[in-house]
Design a protein that fits this description.
The chain is an all-alpha fold. The chain folds into 2 domains: 3-83; 90-253, no CATH class. Helix content is 72%, strand content 2%. The protein has 9 helices and 2 strands. Strand 1 and strand 2 (7-8) form a beta hairpin. Helix 4 (92-115) runs antiparallel to helix 7. The longest helix has 36 residues, at 54-89. The relative contact order is 0.08.
């Protein structure tokens, strides 16, 4: 809904409901229930009360009508938003498939960097970010509920960060002709790529209308599945017992990344 000055329309309506509905209930009690009880159902007495408070009655009826109209408007706007989101969400599986392909190509680069031998000349072909997903994500974010929109926005941000990381990693060889594997750094890159893929994986059933949106934090199982999707094998991404992909992932999930 549109902004009204410094207030958002939905917040304004919520405030009107919070204040107006109790006032409306008090008005009905004072103008209908109490007079009827006091007069033992005398219709003439009730009409006399209404006549004495005619100006108040007109104002209150206009106020109540406004609250009803605002709520109807909000209801219609919400229904339209839901229809628009369903329309834009229909293309979301295609965008997610694009991103999965991109993540797999990124994993190929990282795996090549991990396995490179000293003195060799790796290809390190940096994959290009897909094109279509941006417009699809943009439409979904515009019409989605805040929780879903924030989740999609987070994926967009992390995609840009990931793209910058792997380009910088590959550039070290292309610019100097000397390549250093930097395996400890690669473990972090593998983890972040797995995290990105795990977030994408959680959206597939929601995008296909097979499940509700799942906003729960990622677990080890989500990472393990994502790594398998990308042909990243935890047992191979290993420097020592304390410095390997599985240990790094589980420390990150527990909040201990030291």
């Amino acid at each position: 809904m549109q902004n009204l000055g410094i207030f958002k329309a939905d917040k304004l309506i919520a405030t009107l409901n919070y204040v107006g509905l109790p006032l409306a209930a008090l008005y009905v009690t004072c103008m209908f229930i109490i007079p009827l009880v006091q007069s033992a159902g005398d219709w003439a007495y009730l009409q006399g009360v209404w006549d004495r408070w005619q100006s108040l009655n007109v104002g209150m009826l206009a106020f109540i009508s406004s609250i009803i109209a605002f709520n109807i408007s909000r209801f219609n706007a919400e229904k339209q938003r839901e229809r628009d989101f369903l329309a834009s969400k229909a293309f979301l599986p295609e965008a997610l498939s694009e991103l999965t392909t991109y993540c797999r190509e990124s994993a190929l680069l990282l795996n090549e960097g991990w396995g490179v031998q000293p003195g060799s000349s790796p290809t390190l072909k940096v994959p290009e970010l897909p094109k279509e997903y941006k417009s699809i994500f943009g439409e979904c974010i515009r019409h989605a509920e805040p929780e879903v929109g924030d989740y999609l926005s987070q994926i967009l941000v992390w995609l840009q960060v990931h793209d910058s990381r792997i380009r910088s990693y590959a550039k070290q060889y292309h610019s100097t002709g000397q390549f250093q594997s930097q395996k400890s750094l690669l473990i972090t890159y593998f983890f972040k790529l797995g995290e990105l893929q795990a977030m994408v994986n959680k959206l597939f059933d929601f995008a296909r209308n097979m499940a509700e949106f799942d906003s729960r934090p990622l677990k080890w199982k989500d990472f393990h599945t994502a790594y398998a999707n990308l042909d990243i094998w935890e047992e191979k991404i290993r420097i020592s017992d304390n410095l390997n992909l599985e240990t790094h992932t589980k420390k990150a999930l527990s909040g201990d990344e030291s």
